[in-house]
Specification:
The protein is α+β, with helices and mostly antiparallel strands. It folds into 2 domains: about 110 residues, no CATH class; about 70 residues, no CATH class. It is about 50% helix and about 15% strand. The protein has 7 helices and 6 strands, in the order E-H-E-E-H-E-E-E-H-H-H-H-H.
Length: about 220
């Protein structure tokens, strides 16, 4: 964390803001850990009014560190004092995957800086216990998403139904372009079979609709 030379005024203002900031509703599901979390939009609805009321603005901008993207989050007080943090986003990759990683990073960085809890507490989960062997328990393997994960399967099945029911290509494109954190997370996972299933179904349905539209125009 970096700060301006003096932080007495921003510290006082931030303390007052934190007294009224409430944790956002955890209404999204992370299929990898079967845990609920608050998305960036709901977090901003809780954070912005409290910070603004006490003379604090925030900015989030990206920069490069070698071949990696980093996110700079800065709280700026009306006095000119500031507090900032740096958060690693990812290696440089295609824009769609980068957008998903950046959304996640913005949420984690801002929530941490203002003291908001936006995720379920997983500290006590056995699957996250990686203490060395010989200290109460054996080493557990890193947490990985299981293909049989019911929440992932449910999401994929519901999405496949939506894809099959789309009446035209514009409706399909509008749905696919809309931010969907679960689908973006599945895409980020290298070789995710669930994302491949969704993408292939989307592509096939699009081709079928396009072909049908062309036939109607020819007739």
């Amino acid at each position: 964390m970096k700060t301006s030379e003096q932080i007495n005024e921003i510290a006082t203002a931030l303390a007052k803001a934190q007294a009224v900031i409430h944790n956002p509703a955890k209404d999204k599901l992370n299929p990898h850990f079967k845990a609920k979390y608050a998305d960036l939009a709901s977090g901003l609805d809780c954070i912005r009014p409290a910070l603004s009321a006490h003379g604090i603005a925030f900015v989030q901008v990206t920069g490069l560190d070698g071949d990696s993207v980093v996110l700079q989050t800065r709280l700026i007080h009306a006095s000119g004092q500031w507090i900032e943090s740096l958060y690693p986003v990812s290696k440089i990759m295609d824009h769609q995957k980068m957008a998903a990683a950046l959304t996640y990073s913005k949420r984690q960085a801002l929530f941490s800086l203002v003291g908001v809890c936006g995720d379920d507490d997983l500290d006590g989960e056995d699957s996250l216990d990686v203490r060395p062997a010989g200290r109460d328990r054996p080493v557990q393997p890193p947490v990985e998403r299981q293909e049989s994960d019911e929440s992932v399967n449910y999401y994929v099945n519901q999405s496949l139904k939506k894809i099959a029911a789309f009446p035209d290509v514009p409706a399909m494109k509008a749905w696919w372009s809309a931010e969907d954190i679960v689908r973006r997370e599945l895409e980020i996972l290298n070789g995710s079979p669930e994302y491949s299933t969704l993408f292939e179904a989307f592509k096939s349905r699009g081709l079928a609709l396009s072909s049908a539209a062309s036939s109607e125009r020819a007739a």
